[in-house]
Design a protein that fits this description.
Length: 271
Amino acid sequence: MLRFRNLASGSTGNATVVEAQQPHSLRPTRLLVDCGLGIRQLQTRLAAAGLAIDDIDGIFITHEHSDHIGCVEKLVHRYDKPVWMSAGTRSALPRLDFGQAWCEARDNQPVTLGDIRFTPFTVPHDAREPLQLSCTDGVHKLGIATDLGMPTPHVMQHLQQCHALIIESNHDPALLAASSYPYFLQRRISGSHGHLANAVAAEMVAALMHDALALVVGAHLSQQNNRPDIARQHLEQAVAGLAHAPGVVVADPVSGTAWHDVTPLHASLAA
């Protein structure tokens, strides 16, 4: 069994819980992907998901930007949680003390945490050594790719054959151009090491389509330069006309999503 729940997705904070459990396991394994929230906010969002911080077994930090690290140091010290991040990300956070909790995450080197096996992969983003990841329980596969400027062949390779995808759908170019953001910031966001536009996210989904892809989640929407209906429209158009199209969900920047099972589409249809 593999499932996930996004707790928040946007420039004000990012966090996703990935949960896996094998039939013989007494309890699920839970990985927190990013924790860009305050400790009280995180506790509140976890409680809404039926969880507490003690239920989290490990943390994966994609990169050092503040909307992704949030309360990570407090989690490490108060709750004794291991935290995976790249050496580059660790070096970009010299003031944070992780003690013995830091575990180096490396491109294309799988990590096993209980019933979850996750594989980090490098992405183009304006951070020291940013990573995204795929997660599996051995049968089902979830791909996560937010905070990247373009879908490189390396990224696309790691997202092949996923049963669910969480894909950045950050901005609408027209809204970004009309925004109050200064030109240099607009260039950063739309650049090859910035964030994905809706249309590019849709192109990624179209290229990654296969018969068992059951769910696509548009994530990391800009609250200033995007709208949920625009992001959803692009993603739905990417799978329109397919005999068995995956479901499309857009993560709310503040409240995230509900729990979603990662199940092959044919199994979902049978159920």
